[in-house]
Automatic annotation (TrEMBL):
<comment type="function">
    <text>Required for maturation of urease via the functional incorporation of the urease nickel metallocenter.</text>
</comment>
<keyword id="KW-0996">Nickel insertion</keyword>
<comment type="subunit">
    <text>UreD, UreF and UreG form a complex that acts as a GTP-hydrolysis-dependent molecular chaperone, activating the urease apoprotein by helping to assemble the nickel containing metallocenter of UreC. The UreE protein probably delivers the nickel.</text>
</comment>
<dbReference type="Pfam" id="PF01774">
    <property type="entry name" value="UreD"/>
</dbReference>
<comment type="similarity">
    <text>Belongs to the UreD family.</text>
</comment>
<dbReference type="InterPro" id="IPR002669">
    <property type="entry name" value="UreD"/>
</dbReference>
<keyword id="KW-0143">Chaperone</keyword>
<protein>
    <recommendedName>
        <fullName>Urease accessory protein UreD</fullName>
    </recommendedName>
</protein>
<keyword id="KW-0963">Cytoplasm</keyword>
<feature type="region of interest" description="Disordered">
    <location>
        <begin position="1"/>
        <end position="21"/>
    </location>
</feature>
Amino acid sequence: MSAAPSLQRAPHTTDAAPTPYRLHATARIRAEAADGVTDLPVLHGDGPFVLRRLRPRGSQARICALNTMSAPHNGDRLRIEAVVGPGADLHVISAAATVALPGPAPGHATHDVALRLADSARLHWLPEPVISAAGSDLRQHIRIDLACTARLVLAEQQILGRAHEPTGRMTSRITVRRGERTLLDQQSAYGPGVPGWDGPAVLAGNRAVGQLLVVDPSYRDRPPDTRILDTPAHVHGVITPLAGPGVLVTAAAPDAGDLRRCLDAALHHLGFRTD
């Protein structure tokens, strides 16, 4: 089901000049276990978000998110909320990359994701990259609340600039709480005005950066070892155990293709399918 986005006027800067509109939109997903399969009682698209059911895989429900308009532009406020109930199994992908764009409204854009997993829930959250176009200013925040028996696989990819153009500004934060305790809280920032982001200590000229987060209760007793990924010399990736039942993969590459291959190699090494 899709609903019309909310358009709100930005605050007036002068009495004579009209002010631009901003886009406010929230999409919602709820997955519940029912009779050995996962049902989707809530699948609500809003604004640029259209959510489509895919063919299930066993008991797992699968969703593809489509972006039906150019968004976010500077000033937009976008949000996706997903709740995975007890014992439910959900896999979410997107059809194409999201492009952050400049726009007439003042201020940065926000793209928030709120994920909540109940006992024994499983979620694969594997969207396509976010591309930071020249002149854009995007702030992302992924907030995850996990029950102690829940399992999560989550990917985040950023491409800094479209072909033959400089990057915009992008700030990304991931906050993970498991059983009321913080498992991970990490923020990164790239682009104009961010000190040293392109220097040898950060990206060193790379334009694609990504993270892969896996949280699994089985890692409590036997966590994966720290590992430098076996990728081409110009791609840098590492698997790092967290102080809890999880691992974080961090990778930097010259372009989106190399980044995807690096993250796929990490998934394969950790024992997950890449399709």
